[in-house]
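no rush on this but wanted to send it before i forget. what follows is a protein written twice so to speak, once as letters and once as structure tokens for the fold. mainly i need to know what kind of three dimensional shape the backbone takes. thanks a lot i owe you, the record is right below.
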Amino acid sequence: MASQEDPRVLRTRQLIKDAFGDLLQRKGFDAITIKDIAQRATINRATFYAHFEDKYALLEEITEQAFHERIPEQAVNASEFTDEVCDQLILFAHRYIVDFYRICRMDSKSIGALVDDKIKKLLQQTIEGIFLKGNVLYTADRPHAKIVSAMTGSAIYSAAHDWLTVGENDRTDLLLDMVRPYVMNGLGLNRNGEES
């Protein structure tokens, strides 16, 4: 079996991802078949299945890869949850959602729900990592950190998502002004990420 680092494997996986992305723009997720992806990628179905279990696994990998490529490095490496980190995560979530809905045909509720769940989970993990690095209280109480990061990530993601449909999409400054105080006050943190 070829290594995941083998250039041929990487090239084939990228062909599959590119084909899938192209099909998402044209057909929509529900209408895409493995046969469609294989034909577009100029591979056979067996080759597709050698790399991915199904189109859901492919969607999950693409979503996770895009998340890690786009999330601000400063937020990932932060050791305190400050206003600046909060702003970065809000803007990141907003940009990700806008780009996702612009690139993908959204005639399928299933793809939206899958991607939303995945991004919320990844955002939660990022926030939990920040909490665990910078707050002794959370380090001692990991379940508490997990719950608080889930609530924080959900608040950020939900606000950014709703801003797409009901907000003034080009006014991210207003989004920040509404969401940041809500999140920071809910966490009981001041502007520097210290407990108030």
In short: The chain has a mean pLDDT of 85. The chain has two domains: 7-52, 61-187.
